[in-house]
Amino acid sequence: MKIFYGVQGTGNGHITRARVMAKELYAAGFDVTFQFTGRPPDKFFDMEIFNGYQHREGLTFNSDNGKVSYIKTVLQSKPICFIRDVKALDLSGYDLVISDFEPVTAWAAKVQKKNTLGIGHQYAFKHDIPRTRYEPLAELVMKFFAPVGQGVGLHWHHFDQPILPPIIETPELPSRIQGNKVVVYLPFEDQHAVIKHLLPFKDYQFHLYSPVPVASDHEHIVCNPLSRDGFQRDLYDCVGIISNAGFELASESLQLGKKILAKPLHAQMEQIANAAALEHLGYGRTMTEITPAVIEEWLHDKQAVQVSYPNIARVIVDWIKDGKPAMESEFIARVWDRVKVSPVDL
Predict the structure, then answer these.
(1) What is the pLDDT confidence band of residue 20, given thresholds at 50, 70 and 90?
(2) Each residue of 275-286: pLDDT tens digit?
(3) Which whole-number Å values give the CA distances from 39 to 45, 62, 322, in the listed order?
(4) How far apart (Å, rounded) are the C-alpha atoms in residues 24 and 311?
């Protein structure tokens, strides 16, 4: 089977999920072509697993100091370029088209009337999951940004809905953690302001990752450029993570039993809903603004949650091999029966 797989590359979460899916799709013998959009081609890193992927400009959301700007998003979009990319993408030679919320692939498939499968967290939002309020504009974006024929939604809990657990690597748990080591990943925030908020806590070692590296003159704050391997090493043995409320990183942190402090992007419905779900499930703490007082309270928290998720990428790949039968409630229940939630004393 030949598969065309489009991935939204604005954030790193979609790419992380695609890496796990790529491994299982290749192992199953599928011929897969990947396409990435949402950021300039020179801003992608550690992409070797995708075997000569395609790149198009696509669409992305504009953010400024931790807030999504819909006005800037519209003004900086290039609709003529987007339409040209959609028309230029020939999907005639593919048996299945998959979109992880990637609009060029989704709209090209829609125009060409191809069999389209959506896999990702965004497709869970068509179901009744925790959120703080109804936002008509955000709901329209969710519906029309990357439309698909069938969507497989992912979330940390089923909420009695037909959704699956996250697609993440399932590594062994660390044999020990560094009790004062904290990973900080707030790519949409002013990094100098983040460093300022971390300054008072000299008993902790902060490992800060950002798209544009900044300098730190403080021994307890280490600034790093984005690196998949380096980030994973630091995440593996840290005690917790301070991040925006992206889905994939929180999923990895839960799998490893890390405590979480999440600051959702303002006006970004998905991240606001993710923060609500973390609080609802008791899986992490959230903050609307970054302040030393909130950070201090979280640093002294000695409890976390470890959620053991099965290999959902393999579950989905096997389901595709079986012809994508209807996901009956029994199938969903069997998958969630394999999820184990355990308290962690730090």
Answers:
(1) very high
(2) 999 999 999 999
(3) 11, 11, 35
(4) 10
Three-state secondary structure readout of 17-56 = HHHHHHHHHHHCCCEEEEEEECCCHHHCCCCHHHCCCEEC
Contacts of 157 (CB under 8 A, 6+ apart): 277, 281
- Residue count of the chain: 346
CA 335 centroid distance within chain:
21
User: Read out DSSP for 178-238?
Assistant: -TTEEEEE-TTS-HHHHHHHHTT-TTSEEEEEESS------TTEEEEE--HHHHHHHHHH-
Pairing relationship of beta strands 240-243 and 181-185 according to DSSP bridges: parallel
Which H/E stretch holds residue 162?
A: none
The token duo for 308 is 């053991």
Domains of the chain: 2-168+310-340 (3.40.50.2000), 181-308 (3.40.50.2000)
166 neighbors 309 (Cβ within 8 angstroms): yes
Q: What is the sign, positive or negative, of the torsion defined by CA atoms of 73, 76, 79, 82?
A: negative
| 170 pLDDT higher than 90 | no
For the entire predicted model, the pTM comes to 0.91
User: Which residues are paired to 116 by β-bridges?
Assistant: 97
Quick one: which H or E segment has residue 118? Answer: strand 116-120
- Helix, strand, or coil here: 287? coil
Instruction: Tokens for 139, please give them.
Output: 């709901």
Q: What's the CA gap between 222 and 206, in Å, rounded?
A: 6
- The terminus-to-terminus CA distance of the chain in angstroms comes to 47
| Three-state SS at 4 | strand
State the Cα–Cα distance between residues 72 and 56, nearest whole angstrom: 20
User: Cα 248 from chain centroid?
Assistant: 3
Distance CA 104, CA 8 (A): 9
